[in-house]
Amino acid sequence: MSSSNKKFRTTDLAYIAIGSVLIAICSWISIPVIVPFTLQTFAVFLLIMVFGGMKATCSVAIYILLGAVGLPVFASFGAGIGVLFGKTGGYIIGFLLMGPLYSLITKLCGKKLWVQITALTAGLLVCYAFGTAWFMYIYMRDTGEVGLISVLSWCVFPYIIPDAVKMALAVFISKKFGKRLYH
User: Fold this and answer.
1) Which member of 20, 45, 61, 101 has the lowest number of beta carbons within 10 Å of its beta carbon?
2) CATH topology classification for 10-181
3) CA distances from 60 to 19, 34, 114, 118, 137 (A)
């Protein structure tokens, strides 16, 4: 049976739940600005590298569902469907796209380190694009016209270096300890 057809084991389900908790904890470590600086992306990167794209996506989905039903798992202990439909909700939903894209790229191109880093970067870029488009839509609906460069300067440019550091840290930890953390 191929790994893509394999059912989740009970331990996989437990790890997926732990992954959701890790994302929540990392979201609470936040600096509140227009789009809060958090460690969520670090958690998503780490889960993708350790669990693989699809199981990490399950962790993200559970995290989002927990927040949607009112548990304070989002940045600054935010909760509720309103957060997802607010200005920053697109970035949270964008996390769901990162794992499947990582899986697709590594399936097509292999699991060499440069491919994994490229896949993580592609996932982050898709998350940025989805989140920024959503932010712009909500901002213009609620406040008025705004230019793309302005939104990028608020929502993307300040996060590029911190997200690159988070990605590097997640890759390092997964390569150093990944087999001990999961398998």
Assistant:
1) 61
2) Arp2/3 complex 21 kDa subunit ARPC3 (1.10.1760)
3) 8, 22, 24, 20, 23
C-alpha of 22 from chain center: 11
Q: Which of 80, 102, 99 is nearest to 89 (CA)?
A: 80
What is this structure's pTM?
0.92
What single-letter amino acid sits at 180? R
The whole-angstrom separation of Cα 50 and Cα 131 is 24
Q: Where are the domains of the chain?
A: 10-181
pLDDT tens sequence across 32-91: 888 889 999 999 999 999 999 999 999 999 999 999 999 999 999 999 999 999 999 999
